[in-house]
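FORM 7B: Structural annotation worksheet

SECTION A. Query
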Amino acid sequence: MADDTTLRFYAKNAETYAQHATTPNGAQLDGFLALVPAAGKILELGCGNGRDAARMLEPGFDVDATDGTAELAAEAERRIGRKVRVLRFEHLDAIALYDGIWASASLLHVPAETLVDILTRIRKALRPGGIFTASFKAGTGEGRDDLGRYYNYPSAERLLQDYRAAGWNKVTIEKIMGSGYDAKPTEWLWVTARHAA
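SECTION B. Predicted structure
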């Protein structure tokens, strides 16, 4: 189940959060898009202000942008000029519908005990050969940041175990230093997995 405190944070701070980062993810997003067929169907989980969805739409991808709060979905709609669905991860029930799934800085809010279930749902939603990219804040356990947001803070080893438990067998993890909304130095784990054809 989603963490209600975290969802309330994003709902309450949607306008400010939407203005925080407006440049799309760079190399990671470009690398993901290079692996999705031209005009392919992409599901974005946790689209936030819509910055990455806007970048995906430019070359003609069919983007299904979603977010867990109506307030952030509305912010994204204003940016991309099209409907953004309100969708919580645990309600994803699509079967073999997408060529790619993108989850930048969103699945890191999934309670650790339910991450395998969510990763399984995502695998089922991809077509055979589809690509899935997600990012997490590295760590060694669960916790909340100074803003009260829940994080699962996985290690690379733990993520690999969870992905394998969810049926993924083609997984790569890249470690990159960066930051986030809280402006603190952060080690990011970028995970790319391919649905076995």
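SECTION C. Observations
The helical segments are 4-12, 14-20, 27-34, 51-57, 70-80, 115-125, 156-165. The longest helix spans residues 70-80.

SECTION D. Sign-off
Analyst initials: ____
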